[in-house]
Design goal:
It is a single chain. Strand 1 (18-23) and strand 2 (27-33) form a beta hairpin. The protein has helices at 3-13, 42-53, 72-77; strands at residues 18-23, 27-33, 64-70. The termini are far apart. The protein has one domain: BolA-like (GMP Synthetase, Chain A, domain 3), CATH 3.30.300.90. The chain is α+β, with helices and mostly antiparallel strands. A 3-stranded mixed beta sheet has the order 1-2-3. The protein contains 3 helices and 3 strands; from the N terminus they run αββαβα.
Length: 80
């Protein structure tokens, strides 16, 4: 799987204001900014992203995914 493919999978299942994915084909890092994260705890945000990947998280297709999950307000408050 490529970073573009992983990014497309997440974007297809979750409306994102910003989405950035990088990795080596097995170990991934993602920055996901979505209005759907409003009022949700960190674990709920991560579960929402994992849900977009479905079975890929249970196979070696996506071995590891480290995430920053932010609301648009949280994203705007961070230096870029």
């Amino acid at each position: 799987m490529t970073a573009d493919e992983l990014q497309s999978l997440i974007a297809a299942g979750l409306p994102c204001d910003h989405l950035q994915v990088a990795g080596d084909g097995r170990h991934w890092e993602a920055v996901v900014v979505s209005r759907e994260f409003e009022g949700k705890r960190l674990i709920q945000r991560h579960q929402r992203v994992y849900a977009t990947l479905g079975a890929r998280m249970h196979t070696d297709e996506v071995h590891a995914l480290s995430m920053k999950t932010l609301t648009p307000t949280e994203w705007a408050a961070q230096p870029h």
